[in-house]
Write a structure and sequence with these properties.
By secondary structure, this protein is α/β, with parallel strands linked by helices. 25% of the residues lie in helices and 16% in strands. The chain contains ten helices and 13 strands. The radius of gyration is 21 Å and the shape is globular.
């Protein structure tokens, strides 16, 4: 099995690496605008790695100074797209939604994780008749049953070491009383049904592929996309340890973003989940499910390294010459050491993909094209 690695770069605050394990020979294009030299090879497994805060300049700086690094290998052997931009406002939640739907905020309905909606009713509304619409929609850690717990309130023992035992369906750790209410059904609107378009995971499931993802809040249930007629989550294994929970050994009130070493520890839990999935297991390494057709995770270590004034006695952010300072350099080194095993294991994985289902094919949404997969009618009719 040969390997194709694609570096897809967001110029304004997030870099996404797409690592595809390819069945058959890799084939490239000739000059731009020309026909392919032969039929492109199809990726059997696509691993998406999103790095919050990583700029194009950061990646260029690191690759230049570390030509033998894993990041250099991914970029050097793939396609490096440098003209992408994040949605406005630039933030994790709308940015990740954009990457996994192809939609912009006007299409997806997601401008931020904390916004206002003129059509929905306030959280906690149980008798909807006569209630005036309009409410804050907060899809952040505020949804968790216990925002201070790494498992978001699941109640696991042995945390943080046992965090991989966390549920693969974060809807179970969302407090429905924190959710906005749909006036038509007088019921809470979970994040996945707030999204107006379908996601790449729904497309993959329609093709019979295994799906998985790891992110920082239970609210990333939104990446499942609107429920279809099956009602089953499109992401079969969604691992979402709460990053804004109380971090172990830190003083009360300090979460995993308060210290960059703790952020790296937190990110490493998600890397372990991904490596388990590369090996054909679920994120907890409990069940054999096959290597996902599309899966991945989000890193937060670079973002906190940029934001923290200091961490472990070292200055965060950038130096006077605009190059990464000590904490940020450490975070970049950490990302490189974590991407290396993911890339290496994905290139040697031979786990078969289940045969396609008999479900009709679906097409990923694009800002100019409405989604074609069925979805909740109310999810498409709300106007923020």
């Amino acid at each position: 099995m040969s390997v194709r690695r694609l570096g897809l770069v967001g110029a304004l605050g997030a870099v996404t690496l797409v690592i595809g394990a390819v069945a058959g020979p890799g084939v490239g294009l000739s000059q731009p605008g020309a026909a392919p030299t032969s039929s492109p090879a199809a990726s059997r497994h696509v691993l998406v790695v999103s790095v919050d805060g990583l700029h194009q300049s950061d990646l260029d700086w690191y690759v230049t100074r570390h030509p033998s690094s894993a990041l250099s290998g991914v970029v050097g052997r793939g396609n490096n797209f440098t003209q992408a931009q994040t949605p406005v406002p630039s933030d994790s939640f709308p940015g990740m939604v954009a990457q996994l739907t192809g939609g912009n905020p006007a299409t997806t309905g997601v401008y931020y994780d904390d916004s206002y909606n003129h059509a929905l009713l306030p959280p906690g509304t149980t008798r909807c008749a006569g209630v005036s619409p309009g409410t804050e929609v907060n899809y952040s850690e505020a949804l968790d049953k216990n925002p201070n717990a790494l498992d978001a309130g699941q109640g696991l023992a042995g945390l943080p070491g046992n965090i991989l035992a966390m549920t693969n369906n974060p809807r179970s750790v969302i407090d429905p009383g924190t959710l906005p209410v749909d006036p038509a059904r007088c019921s809470p609107v979970y994040p996945h049904d707030y999204l107006r378009v379908n996601t790449v995971f729904q497309v993959a499931r329609a093709a019979g592929l295994v799906t998985a993802w790891s992110d920082k809040h239970a609210a990333y249930d939104i990446l499942n996309g609107p429920d279809t007629t099956t009602g089953a989550p499109a992401i079969q294994d969604l691992f979402t340890p709460e990053i804004n929970s109380q971090a172990d050994v830190l003083p009360p009130g300090q979460d995993w973003t308060s210290d960059n070493t703790k952020t790296q520890q937190y990110d490493a839990y998600k890397v372990r989940a991904v490596l388990n999935e590369v090996d054909g297991y679920d994120h907890s390494r409990t069940h054999t499910v096959g290597v996902p057709g599309i899966f991945g995770m989000n890193f937060q270590s670079v973002s906190t390294a940029q934001k923290l004034p200091t961490s472990d006695g070292q200055p965060g952010g950038y130096q006077a010459d605009h190059t990464p300072g000590p904490v940020l350099r450490s975070a970049l080194d950490f990302i490189d050491t974590q991407v290396g095993p993911c890339s290496a294991r994905s290139s040697t994985s031979t786990s078969p993909i289940p045969p396609p289902s008999s479900s009709p094919p679906s097409t990923a949404s694009h800002p100019s094209n409405p989604p074609t997969s069925p979805a909740s009618p109310t999810a498409r009719s709300w106007t923020a």
